[in-house]
Design the sequence.
């Protein structure tokens, strides 16, 4: 079991992965999981471009985009803690497969509605909510399955490789989504997403991991309370969770307003949206190379989050498409370092008996995004997209900077005290 005092924290933060940047690929289970993740994430990005495009085309309203963002994300805060408990009872593989089946069904319904000209805002919102439920379930369970597939020693490497495939899909997905919409319409984009999700279901079905994680233990409420109590006493995991909540509440909402940035600030349409949404994936290819080698701890994570927020803040003020594209590529570099280290450190610093529950609470922190998105919609209508989103990301950057400086000073004080203790 990992120690969680100051010295134990440092040891957990810097424990090396198995040698080699592709060590996790030795696991057949991980290769299957990565293939399923590629299909899911490619479909997710195609869906995001198509859904945002259709809603903005129908309404032309930032408030409508904010409402959609709320519905696609609110279930994260409600269901993510439960997802960890359910994964403990029934197995993460089953939960992930259930989520993918639901999302594939919703994409199929929306594709048929688009092709038959029966798409409506209530249907779009309902489908967005279904996608949100699926995301709330598959985010924590997929990370748990990475651990189950590769083990503790290769966790950083496995998460980095998993994120690299996600980054690749983020490059390809929005571009494909924009092109498919331009050539064949949004219905074809939703149909392609449904096909990809069905493929993901089949891959998860044959995934050779355990079907049940535990056979007994506390009830759901007791398990949730126990996870929260553990989090309160585990300073290292608590810091990771707080940074994740800050990013979710004040930074990530800008993604829901990419159509507004493209139309009002950068003078583009669906193709420009696809270009901007793919930029982060391009940048992540560089950042993940660092994490794949098993490098990085708490300080690296905090500084990467601060720099990521700074790049996004500058992007919100840009008025040139290619400058904005470059800024989001740079943001993608440091975001991939921040996010992969954040996810890895949560699992590495949590004892096995609390790992699933802590991951559920950690994933719940991204549930702050819909509330911020909903509030930003009217604010953007009133003061403009640059002022509203730039203020939010700027505040987040200052808070993260104070945490990064504090962690750096604490580490230096410990290093200075070490010779004296010796």
Sequence:
């Amino acid at each position: 079991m990992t120690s969680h005092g100051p010295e134990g924290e440092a040891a957990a933060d810097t424990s090396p992965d198995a040698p080699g940047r592709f060590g996790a690929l030795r696991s057949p289970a991980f290769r299957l999981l990565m293939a399923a993740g590629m299909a899911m994430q490619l479909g997710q990005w195609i869906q995001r471009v198509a859904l945002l495009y259709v809603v903005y085309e129908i309404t032309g309203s930032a408030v409508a985009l904010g409402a959609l963002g709320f519905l696609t994300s609110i279930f994260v805060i409600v269901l993510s803690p439960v997802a960890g408990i359910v994964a403990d009872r029934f197995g993460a593989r089953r939960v992930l497969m259930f989520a993918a089946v639901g999302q594939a069904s919703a994409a199929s319904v929306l594709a048929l509605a688009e092709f038959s000209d029966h798409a409506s805002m209530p249907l779009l919102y309902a489908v967005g909510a279904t996608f949100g439920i699926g995301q709330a379930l598959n985010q924590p369970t997929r990370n748990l399955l990475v651990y189950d597939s590769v083990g503790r020693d290769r966790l950083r490497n496995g998460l980095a490789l998993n994120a690299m495939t996600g980054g690749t899909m983020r490059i390809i997905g929005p571009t494909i989504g924009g092109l498919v919409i331009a050539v064949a319409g949004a219905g074809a984009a939703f149909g392609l997403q449904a096909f990809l999700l069905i493929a993901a279901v089949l891959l998860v079905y044959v995934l050779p991991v355990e079907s049940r994680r535990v056979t007994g233990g506390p009830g759901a409420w007791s398990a949730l309370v126990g996870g929260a109590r553990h989090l309160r006493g585990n300073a290292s995991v608590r810091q990771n969770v707080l940074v994740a909540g800050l990013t979710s509440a004040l930074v990530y909402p800008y993604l829901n307003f990419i159509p507004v940035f493209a139309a009002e600030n950068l003078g583009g349409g669906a193709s420009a949206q696809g270009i901007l949404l793919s930029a982060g994936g391009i940048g992540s290819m560089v950042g993940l190379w660092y994490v794949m080698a098993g490098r990085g701890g708490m300080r690296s994570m905090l500084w990467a989050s601060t720099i990521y927020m700074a790049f996004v803040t500058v992007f919100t003020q840009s008025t040139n498409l290619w400058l904005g594209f470059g800024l989001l590529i740079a943001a993608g570099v440091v975001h991939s370092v921040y996010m992969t280290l954040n996810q890895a450190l949560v699992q590495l610093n949590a004892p096995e008996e609390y790992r699933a529950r802590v991951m559920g609470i950690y994933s719940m922190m991204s549930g702050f995004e819909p509330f911020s998105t909903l509030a930003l919609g009217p604010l953007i209508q009133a003061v403009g997209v640059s002022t509203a989103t730039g203020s939010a990301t700027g505040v987040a950057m200052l808070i993260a900077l104070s945490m990064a400086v504090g962690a750096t000073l604490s580490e230096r004080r410990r290093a200075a005290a070490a010779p004296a203790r010796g």
The two ends are 26 Å apart (CA to CA). Residues 21-206+217-421 form a domain with the Growth Hormone; Chain: A; fold (CATH 1.20.1250.20). The chain has one domain: 21-206+217-421.
